[in-house]
Input
Amino acid sequence: MERLENFLDRHPERGFFLLLLVALPVFFINLGLLPLFADEPTRANVALEMILTKNYSVPTIGGEYYYNKPPFYNWILAGVYQLSGAFTEFNTRLPAIIPMFFFAITIFYSVSYFLKNRHIALLSGLLFLVNGRMLIYDSMLGHIDIFYSWLTFGSFMLIFYFFQQRKWFWLFFISYLITAVTFLCKGLPSVVFQGFTLVALLTYTGNLKKLFSWQHILSGLFCLTIIGGYFLNYYQYNPNLEGYFSTIWDQSSRRTATEFGFITTALHMLSFPFEHAGHLFPASILLIFCFHKDFIRGIKANPFLKYIAIVFLANIWVYWLSPQTRPRYLLMLYPLLFIIWSHAYYTYRDKLPKTKRVFEISLMVLGTLVTLAMPAALLFDLSEFVDHIVLKVFLLILISAFFALLIYKLKSQKIVAFLGLMLIVRLAFSLFILPHRAHHKVENYYKSAAIEMGRVSKGAPFFFYQYHPQEAGIPFHDRLIFYIQRERMAQVKFTEDASKPGYYFTFDRELEHPKALLIKNYQNLKLYELK
Output
């Protein structure tokens, strides 16, 4: 134990990468098991249709223009599909999961460079992987947000790097280059992050006049040129830029306070910090070390900590005022908190002996509970879809007990052992919970139905008849579209005219045509053939 403690004391960077290696199989096991859900099929559809139509300029779903997001992320996803040759759930999630590890590495090296403290860097970087939100939700979804947030966080760090060196051209040029890329991923939020971050930093440091410098103007024009170049190319295929821009604006503004009443917004503002502290558990436990009397003074005394506090405060209010903010929209801001909390832990833990004692007891209790909870997997009927379940449970008990023992025995590195324990929690989640969900999810039925419809209709035209889903139903419909198109490897079309020969798919109505033959009824879904 003493040798391990000394090793972690002297080489925290090795501890970081060792746990990162442990995290690789933990997050990748059964990654492709669940059918696509939430916003995943929308991203997958756009990428698949780009490949089918060989048109990478114009995002479409079902042959209709898709305006909600520009296509940069879809280009990456399409590249993964083509390189692998497989349009699987696993490959759909790769462009989100791989950047998650790069994100953790970026946090580690940024903190190591700016704070010169590899212990804080280790804790900050790994907290990004083991906070509750990432541990059991975002890390298993093929959403755009991890990739997008990684780029945005990288821009925050590069802005500070060049600011310290007073290299104004590179500060503006690189950050606006990243803004151009992130805009082509997600639209207007990128402009908000760039604008609020620069204005807050330059105002606080007395350099606001730099917004009128040639370096800033030239960099801004460069950013607009990249974005404008995309839309100029897009215009060659679809001149409805007004529809594109209005949809992008609507996507960015619909969840703001202006769309909701005073009471809804006020309740959201009151619950916001508590809700997100819950999302970030157990990382948010470190908040208790921020109550030292020197905490604020310590933030102000360190240029990097002061900068990330400014960036956080400059950007968080937009989401604090937006009642429909989703946690994944804040993934670029969460690491700023992890860095501040990790700094507070290592700086003030010995100055707060009672708090430290309560914290360490909490870690030990959590470690014990996790170890004792592992055999619970045997109480459920999981053997049908989890192979060698007894052996897996036994091994997880041993590994969990090992990390719990480390938490108990180690003196200054208990938190590192706890990070390892959290990775084992995710391993148990991957081994037991994901197969259970995959086996019981109703989405499996609809996936099988969509694949069957695609197989039956292969080689013939396929139409989605009277396609008018409510917004809440779009992910469900997009999932069906993806699996049908993947099976057919041909694009489907939306239509309101039941006159062309081919197959027609209806969601909630009959196909009223005298020559329409009902092929099969899939609960509330129906497949017709019109000859």
